[in-house]
Amino acid sequence: MVHTISYHITPYAANQYSSLFSSLNQKVDQLYDHLNNDFLVTTNKVKKYTSTAREKMVSGKTREAVHAKIKYAVKRFDSIIVELQYHDIIRQKLEHIYTVEKKISEEFAFIYENPESRKSPYFVLIMHEVIELSINQLKAIKDDYLFASTKIQQILRSLWADREISRELQLFLFNTAENLRNVIQALDVLIKMHERIRDERIAFEVRITDEHKIKLLNEIKQLYTMESEREVFNKTFSIVEEPAAAVEDDIFF
Amino acid sequence: MDFGSADNMLSSFNDIDRNIDKMIQLLQDEQQKLDESFVMYLNRIKRAKRDGNYVSLDKFEQARKVFEQARLQIRELTELIEPLQHIKQVNRMVTFSMKSSEAHMFIEISSFLDAISNICLGQLKYIRARYKEILSTVRLGIAKLWMDRELAHAIRLILSVNQIQYNKFLVEFKQTEVRYADISLSIKSSTPEEFHQRIVLRMVSNRLPSMEEQRIIQTLFPSWDKQLDFVA
Q1: Which residues of A touch B184 (CB under 8 A)?
Q2: Domain residues for B200?
Q3: B230 in a domain, yes or no?
């Protein structure tokens, strides 16, 4: 199907937006670093505590009551490791934002450097929708992160509060506050930058059909590997997904 | 990033200046190292011609021309230093007004940081593109010589134009680009008052005198100075 597209993007806008989107990508890179630090600090500590706990358990030198407590602690450490997978989930979600915004930056750079080119931009045509979507995805990421991080900290606190466990495992309540702060600050900067771009930047003219817009947005949706991302997408664009079509068996039997 | 804080912006401009200094250093190093390498090949060609070789004299002559030409082309790298220094002058103009005790001056200039950053970004992108173009042209000439295996063997030619310095330059460029973008985002965008914008553009334009620099300003602000000239 041929879609009618018309747009007018000044060199000023193209130059500015290509660099602004580069900056957004750079901030995501910085966020990866903070997430990585957070992940490393927590895993290293938990790994150390788990190995101490296992040594105590096989040594047979601990009283039965303490032994049971240590066994419980090991289970809790395992649950922290499970919780830590949220880092990977967040990373994937950020990658999806990064991929689209990188393309937008490249498209704007192309427009700026090749003003005579007739090659039509792609995701630039739905830049405003992308920005709105990124804001909502980033806010959801922030909520995910706060939830998981708090949960881990709660588990550690409850173990640390038991003096016997903390003495036996030389458990120090390590502070993840700095990592948490760095990640949250980086996310807040990203959200704020997107909001500034949405609210205050120079406008440009794009005319595309709703059909075309939906087609492009669906391409972004295809990138998503997680249900929660698709939910944010649907919510952003007020899409109500129809329930999966019933199979023949449901209809006839 | 602290949006809109003057201290933060001043520090960003200082960082940009440092990035630009590194870019200048990298361009100088690139030019110097490439020149040394090309001179070395020219000497090898001279020796190989003198010593007699199974490679024809025509081929040596052709190689000599390529390296002489390459030496001229890479001189243009150092010509890119001047526009980089001009960007620093624009930065200085901005930081001076921000530091100025006369508060109103800061307000005026800072309201146009969006436009100023955009011009500086345009200049930087041109410099990066030009650098890349010069290297590609030189590399292409040498690659053709290198394809002639007999010649390449006779003068022990390796493809000496690599991307190492350019990639370092790119790192500095990207940091600078992000800093300018962040500065432009730090300021609340508003419709600029045309008269003052023209004054600010004139101030920037005075610091970016070359034809190429003027062309970039014109691309971003078409006919910005026409009306002013008419009034004058």
Answers
A1: 16, 19-20
A2: 6-225
A3: no
The structure tokens listed for A163 are 């003096």
pTM of the model: 0.86
Residue B211 counted as domain residue: yes
CB crowding B85-100: b at 16 or more within 10 Å, else e: ebbbebbebbbebbee
Structurally, chain B folds into a number of domains equal to: 1
Q: Low-confidence residues of chain B, pLDDT below 70?
A: 1-4, 53, 101-108, 160, 188-192, 227-232
Is A20–B184 a contact, with Cβ atoms under 8 angstroms apart? yes
Q: What is the ipTM of this complex?
A: 0.84
Percent helix, strand, coil in chain B, to 5, is: 80, 0, 20
- The full 3-state SS of B196-211, as one line of letters, equals HHHHHHHHHHHHCCCH
Contact at CB, B181 and A16, closer than 8 angstroms: yes
Q: Where are the domains of chain A?
A: 12-239
CB-CB under 8 Å, B3 with A196 = yes
Task: Report chain A residues whose CB lies below 8 A from the CB of B215.
Answer: none
**Nearest C-alpha neighbor of B122 from the set A115, A197, A193, A19:** A19
Question: In this structure, what DSSP letter does residue B156 have?
Answer: T
Span B126-158, pLDDT tens digits:
999 999 999 999 999 999 999 988 888 888 888
Condensed to tens digits (0 to 9), the pLDDT of residues A105-117 reads 999 999 999 988 8
User: CA nearest A110 in B: which residue?
Assistant: B125
Chain A contacts of B174, Cβ < 8 Å?
Answer: 22, 26
* Residue among B174, B185, B219 whose CB faces A20 most closely: B185
